[in-house]
Design brief:
Elements: H1 2-26, H2 32-36, E1 42-43, H3 55-70, E2 77-78, H4 80-96, H5 109-116, E3 121-129, H6 132-140, E4 154-162, E5 167-176, E6 179-181, E7 184-185, E8 187-188, E9 192-200, E10 205-212, E11 218-221, E12 224-225, E13 230-237, E14 240-250, E15 253-264, H7 285-300, E16 308-309, H8 311-327, H9 340-346, E17 351-361, H10 364-373, H11 375-381, E18 388-396, E19 399-409, H12 415-428, E20 435-436, H13 438-454, H14 461-469, E21 477-484, H15 487-495, E22 507-514, E23 520-527
Parallel strand pairs: 2-4, 8-15, 16-18, 20-22
Antiparallel strand pairs: 1-7, 3-5, 4-5, 6-9, 9-13, 10-11, 10-14, 12-13, 14-15, 17-19, 18-19, 21-23, 22-23
Length: about 525
């Protein structure tokens, strides 16, 4: 009898253990239907799969939304695709027993986001604890919690429970949905023209669409506005990988609404995570220099000249990164803080062209990789017009706030050099060269200096009076005033003047002045 009792007891223990292990395994793996949706066929598609919210997920959602409401923010709506991404990442963390954004043998969260069919901007938070109440406390704590970020609209929460030892693995995916897409394919089996349609959230307007084509070149597409606030763009596709980006102007300047990788007759690549460069605790210049090297590596791959590292631009970039970290917003225009143009002006830097990339990420490699995946940011990085860059990186907790400022500087040109260069260009347009008249040039020079000081074009009427007052005789006289940032542009405007090539003109006076903002002011007097 004792043997029989022992056998029954052992059977019960084994049966219970089997089901506990089975339950344990179910906490690690997704259902077959959920796994099939990890590679979505369309962006913005409704997930036809029952994703149940348990007690823990509901508790987290209720806490997040009560905290948002207390701060005057709208509650977040659950998003099925974001929930699937969150559950998948929590299951992977449980399987590897690692609280990490980058997991061994897996593509990055950003890559898996687009695989699932999410093209919006997302932010991620990870937690692991033996008690779900402590997870709620961690969500609420901190100076700038993710749940309070401006512009958030949706959320996905994934909780996976580990039994041995007891632990909750939690992933929260916060979604910022600026534009609402109609369904759009992730894979296209043949060359075609596809129509992208979307609407914008309130406070957003002036959408633009940029496209990275398989060669790596970036193009801007025509956007049409339809009735009912609907926008559309026709996109031609042939074989290869494309990246479509929708941008829109909002309260904080231009923002990225969607980044949409599209594969045409090619397989989606599997981008595994790898060892990253981690931000050091002591040396603030190293990550900026390291990102500078990554920038020039990307330019070298496209046969572009390397950018030069500018300490002045770095300081300008750091100002913005510090301001972004204080506000918790990754935007170009922060209320109460100077934008790029104002920062350049305050630093008295004379630039011909400028652009700014901003990002927040856990590593500089992730940030640079994601910037290159965005057509608009990629365009700035690979712009052959830019000669210098400044990079500012500020760490706040586990995030890096990154600013890249690109410029082409306006070279300083003195009056003597400017006159010499322009006289040479002018005489190349003529059969017989003009002789410079020093007296006339002094009159023209004073006129250019007045224009540079006032920052505006001035009438040439006073020039004739000045010539008369100095007793300068002429049978024919002609005046021309030109302003612009470059010698090349000035020379082109001069070339268009009818009198420059006239054989009747014999002498010339040139006034040349560069103002504090780098603009060139030129006065030309032609005399016979």
């Amino acid at each position: 009898m004792k043997k029989l009792f022992g056998f029954v007891l052992l059977s019960v223990i084994l049966w219970g253990g089997f089901h506990l292990i089975r339950l344990h395994d179910q906490a690690i793996f997704l259902s077959e239907k959920q796994i099939s949706l990890l590679n979505a066929s369309h962006y913005a598609s409704e997930k036809d799969v029952p994703i149940t919210s348990g007690r823990e997920e509901n508790a987290i959602l209720e806490r997040i939304n009560s905290l948002r409401v207390s701060k005057g923010l709208l509650p977040l709506k659950p998003d099925k695709s974001a929930v699937l991404l969150a559950v998948h990442h929590s299951a992977l963390m449980r399987k590897q027993s690692r609280l990490e954004f980058d997991l061994v043998g897996q593509s990055s969260l950003e890559t898996r986001k687009t695989d699932i069919g999410i093209s919006d901007t997302c932010f991620y938070a990870l937690y692991a604890d033996t008690n779900i109440s402590r997870v709620l406390e961690q969500i609420e704590g901190g100076e700038d919690p993710l749940y309070s970020k401006s512009g958030l609209t949706h959320v996905g929460i994934g909780v996976v429970r580990q039994l041995f030892p007891l632990r909750y693995w939690v992933t929260i995916v916060y979604v910022k949905r600026i534009a609402h897409l109609d369904e759009f394919p992730t894979y296209i089996p043949r060359s075609s023209i596809e129509t992208l349609r979307w609407t914008l959230e309130e406070n957003y307007s002036k959408p633009a669409v940029k496209l990275t084509i398989p060669t790596g070149e970036v193009k801007e597409l025509t956007v049409k506005r339809l009735t009912g606030g609907v926008y559309e763009a026709e996109i031609p596709f042939s074989q290869g990988k494309y990246t479509v980006e929708i941008l829109a102007s909002g309260p904080y300047g231009v923002e990225v609404a969607h980044v949409i990788p599209v594969y045409v007759q090619v397989q989606r690549e599997k981008e595994l995570t790898r060892k990253r460069y981690h931000f050091p605790d002591t040396d603030e210049e190293n990550p900026e220099k390291a990102m500078f090297e990554l920038l020039n590596r990307d330019r070298a791959r496209h046969n572009l000249k390397p950018l030069q590292f500018s300490p002045d631009l770095c300081e300008i970039a750091r100002i913005h990164s510090r301001n972004m970290s204080k506000s918790g917003k990754v935007v170009h225009d922060l209320p109460g803080y100077p934008n790029l143009g104002e920062r350049l002006q305050d630093a008295r830097l004379k630039v011909l062209k400028q652009a700014e990339n901003i990002a927040s990420d856990v590593t500089i490699e992730d940030a640079q990789e994601n910037l290159m995946k965005s057509p608009g940011h990629r365009q700035a990085i690979l712009d052959s017009d830019f000669s210098h860059v400044g990079i500012g990186i500020v760490r706040h907790k586990n995030l890096l706030y990154i600013t890249q400022n690109f410029v082409s500087f306006i070279p300083e040109v003195g009056p003597s050099e400017g006159k010499r260069m322009l006289l040479g260009r002018i005489n190349q347009l003529r059969r017989s060269p003009l002789r410079e008249n020093a007296t006339i040039s002094s009159i023209a020079q004073k006129h250019s200096e007045k224009m540079a000081a006032s920052g505006r074009m001035m009438s040439t009427g006073s020039l004739k009076d000045r010539l008369d007052s100095m007793g300068i005789k002429f049978r024919q006289i002609s005046f021309l005033v030109v302003s612009g940032p470059t010698i090349e542009g000035i020379a082109e405007e001069i070339r268009k003047s009818q009198n420059i090539g006239s054989s009747s003109m014999e002498e010339i006076g040139i006034g040349f002045r560069q103002s504090d903002d780098g603009n060139l002011w030129v006065t030309i007097i032609l005399k016979k």
